[in-house]
Amino acid sequence: MSFEINGKPFAQEPRAGQCLRTFLRELGHFGVKKGCDAGDCGACTVLLDGEPVHSCLIPAFRAEGRAITTIEGLGGDHGAHPMQQAFLDAQGFQCGFCTAGMILTCASLNQAQRTDLGAALKGNICRCTGYRSIEDALLGKTNVEASVEPGAAFGRSLPAPAGPDIVRGNARYTFDTTIDGLLHVKLVRSPHAHARIVAIDKSEALKVPGVHAVLTHEDAPSMLISTARHEMDWMDPEDTRVLDDVVRFIGQRVAAIVAESEAAAEEACRRLKLDYEVLPALIDPEQAMAPGAPVIHPDRTTANRIADAQRNLAAETHGEFGDVAAALATSAVTYEAIFHSHRVQHAALETHGGLAWLDASGVLNVRTSTQVPFLTRRALSDIFKLPPDKVRVFCERVGGGFGGKQEMFVEDILALAALKTGRPVKLELTREEQFIATSTRHPMRVHIKAGADADGKLTALQLDVLSNTGAYGNHAGPVMFHSLSESIAVYNCPNKRVDGYAVYTNTVPAGAFRGYGLPQTLIAIEAAIDELGQQLGIDPYEMRRRNIVRDGDPMLSPPPSELHDVLYGSYGLDQCLDLVERAMQADGPQPDLSPDWLLGDGVALTMIDTAPPAGHLADATIALREDGGFDLTVGTAEFGNGTSTVHRQIAATTLATTVDRIRLRQSDTAHGGHDTGAYGSAGMFVAGKATHAASMQLATELKAAAAGAWLCDVGSCVLEDNAVVSGVRRMPFAELVKLARERGQPFAGSGNSGGTPRSVGFNVQGLRIAVNKATGELRVLRSVHAADAGIVANPMQCRGQVEGGVAQALGAALYEEMVIDATGRVTNPKFRDYHLPSFADVPRTDVFFAETSDTIGPLGAKSMSESPYNPVAAALGNAIANATGIRFTAPPFKPDRLFPALHAKFGD
Amino acid sequence: MDLNTITTVARPQTRTQLPAWTAGDAWLAGGTWLFSEPQVHLKRLIDLTDLKWPALTITDNHLSIAATCTVAQLDGLACPSDWLAAPLINQCCRAFLASFKIWKTATVGGNLCMSLPAGPMISLTAALGGVCTIWKAGGGEQRIPVVDFVTGNQRNRLTPGDLLRQIDIPIAALKRRTAYRQISLAPVGRSAALLIGSLDADGTLTLTVTASTARPIQLSFRRAPEASVLRDAIVQQITDDLYHTDIHGQPLWRKHMTLRLAEEVRRELLEAMPS
């Protein structure tokens, strides 16, 4: 057979059932990505004879004799294709994993399709951007600032350094590498929600040609672990194993097969004989603490950091300030309701997975799709009893995270397989495995009671939370605590009470997810604020103004915390409310809608601590390079959060240079130092501080060296335009390199950050919507978001983070829903049944920033990636209530779920 | 995705070359569904490409759509100006959950054989009175109207080894005035109800209900019904158990949307009637 790929002939023969996607990747065209492998997401789009197709659906043999163009070949010999340049100019990407497919699709649209992008792009999912910047690329808009003078990078809209590689398909994600002699790992997964493995017969599986190892609990370390990764291990219960002899959810891994090919590994998976003793399963979280309920972790105790294993209680909390019951009894108005937030998935386009190998010096290398390389190294070192310097964990570019990669779902298996076989191994999860066997958001039932006096001042706030952590307690406690923290601390109220329970069930585990519990409680609290205000005739903005904390007010949520390191480094909540209210009132085009459509406005606010609690560490080093530029080394990872851009901006600003002279190395334990990880928006607020400190130290060194050479007072030296300057004297950095050479030691600085004290950030979301009372359809007519991010490090990127957060939250509030049946099975583990927002689903959001400067964050900045997600579902619930007069309490607010109540109220 | 259990691909050029059907065989038309899910029970694909069936053939009486005609080919058909129903073709193509990129590969026949309630080619060909021609596994042919071909969610009249050859649409049906309505849970989501009404020269109004029901259901009225007559007919003939339920729409909602869209279809067709 002969294939023409990007103008070059190939004579390789595809396998009979091979799809074009994997064939192209095997031939080295790594720009062809796998998002779903099922034709739904478009990440694998290539051109076949000039026409865009999803290469995962094309039998490879059918491409014989045809011309295939991948992203790498789109620009031809003339550099970038205009669409690639357009995506660079507009920065129409974040993690960049969808970008190749998006560009190839956009480049092939005709004029008619360009006038209906919702339809034209329904086969291309971007999980990060919210599509506005993609539309900008199609419209030819330039969002990046052209050039910035030395020392002025911070606060400017500079492009992501990886951009040119991303648009050309050259950015290397987890699997975009070739390793000779690679073996493939496939996992056998439990068909039972709860069962004990009583017998394993490997013989048939081992007979499959090409199979090297069949690994089960008999082969795995017995150590109890959590998949969750935190700086402090005590935050998560140790309740699982690399491979366990008891399985507690459908989809839990039972065995790992290592083979020459995925096909052989899959065949061996089918032939592995397993006998299970099926155990009673607990699916309904409401039943978890009931007497007689099946106990999921009967052998565990508080020594394993499980609150009460016999009651299926992973974690619990109780606390009260004042006397809520008494206050409610005497309040002018009260509100009580129960809200249910559902199970949603991160759906990062790059699935979990990685590669592992032992190098010549005996170091176990793990290249993986992670937000936490350093914590994963620590876990692997603990589990496999290897010295930390014998384990290296790293990532290059990661295709989206959203919290889902603050876990260890594959690295332990990879390590086990590499250590057992001595061979390089690869494990790449399928999209279905992402759904059934990684983690989800915590579904929560939130029972709220609230009261206010006649002036609209809150008198009482009580929350009772039941959080479903699934089969394992990864993040169970921290998410539950977080859900009951800033959400109520943002309101002044003399009487507050919380009761929280995180319960085990025999379902896919919940874990870290953007928002970390806050969206699930906010939907109840923000509803209560509106409902109380409505009873009193106080509008939602005014009701909030009367109750929000002001700069300096204590931020209180019971029970009392040991941590007292959250401060008002800055305060912009008042501004955010004003910005949203003003924008919502601004004139706009009147929608042309039939009388069936009911209009309503909604608003919701959120506060968030700017870093995770109890320790979040980051080291950074920076050194003057031979060419007068700088090498900056940080531990934090890049997965579309934009920190790579911002770290360079911080360093360039501090060192009076331009970002192009800062070369960034990141997210590799081999570089030394430590970094807790990129979660809780810490990549900027915590790691950015480390970069700032390192750069400051280096700046001091450079000034001291110049002062020494000039024999002048170091206090007279400043950095200016790539040089040290004192009066009329000027020593360019390139000259300082010579000094370094003479003294035999390069100029370098190092810095670290302990993630404390922490500040607070704020977000306010406003929505105007229309609900069709006859069909339940919902349209967003206006979306306004104000964020208090301190000094905004990169307005273009920060806007993108806000838009992306709003889009992801709208997806969860309107469409996305993981359904688990009575047996515990996920019934819709694919994108065509789990509707991610596409271009047509996401409204444009007007983004505003409060004008504040933080005294704690780096150069006045605060974190802003996670929190824009948080108030959206709450604002939507309030808008629907405003439009319909009905308080819906259980998202997603899909037409078929809104319909029964609308029909009951409004009839046909 | 890779179908790793496939060991061979047969590529017959004529009907006589079709291999004897055995367990583990699958017809490969576009392959857009086949390659979208694991198919571990399959060993051999029988590729229909080399049969080289003409995608679209117009005769005096019929538009013949080969089972292997792609959605894009059908969408691109230049229809004669007296085919009043022509807009239906693009409307139904757009009702695909899948992108236009998939239309280039996905086939009309594949959509029928998948027999999903939301299959828009089922809606189209059923509404236009299409008749399937099936090459029976043991030889011979069978003709079945599309409305009878699909019998439920992912169920149809094919038995193992049967091959859908083509769908014939009467030209007369293509000359009818039609009205189209569709709704889904998301703006470009999977159809939860897709209704097509058509008006015959003799005044017969035919309503084809798809997507909301597990199989296509057709209601015919000798002359355009009053709203209440239409509504009663739907309530009577489409019993609650016929409404499909899945993540793309709860049955109660699908039922009400069916009633609502049916009335819109009726009104649109009535307005188009010469008074």
UniProtKB/TrEMBL annotation, chain A:
Residues 1-74 form the 2Fe-2S ferredoxin-type domain. Keywords: Iron, Metal-binding, Oxidoreductase. CDD domains: fer2 (cd00207). GO terms for molecular function: 2 iron, 2 sulfur cluster binding; iron ion binding; oxidoreductase activity. PROSITE patterns: 2FE2S_FER_1 (PS00197), 2FE2S_FER_2 (PS51085). Pfam families: Ald_Xan_dh_C, Fer2, Fer2_2, MoCoBD_1, MoCoBD_2. InterPro entries: 2Fe-2S-bd, 2Fe-2S-bd_dom_sf, 2Fe-2S_ferredoxin-like_sf, 2Fe-2S_ferredoxin-type, 2Fe2S_fd_BS, Ald_Oxase/Xan_DH_a/b, Ald_Oxase/Xan_DH_a/b_sf, Ald_Oxase/xanthine_DH-like. Belongs to the xanthine dehydrogenase family. This is Xanthine dehydrogenase, molybdenum binding subunit apoprotein.
From TrEMBL, chain B:
Coiled coil: none annotated. Gene3D superfamilies: 3.30.465.10. Residues 1-174 form the FAD-binding PCMH-type domain. InterPro entries: Diverse_Substr_Oxidored, FAD-bd_PCMH, FAD-bd_PCMH-like_sf, FAD-bd_PCMH_sub2, Mopterin_DH_FAD-bd. It comes from the Bacteria. Transmembrane segments: none annotated. PANTHER family: XANTHINE DEHYDROGENASE FAD-BINDING SUBUNIT XDHB-RELATED, XANTHINE DEHYDROGENASE SUBUNIT C-RELATED. This is CO or xanthine dehydrogenase, FAD-binding subunit. It comes from Bradyrhizobium shewense. The lineage of its organism: Bacteria, Pseudomonadati, Pseudomonadota, Alphaproteobacteria, Hyphomicrobiales.
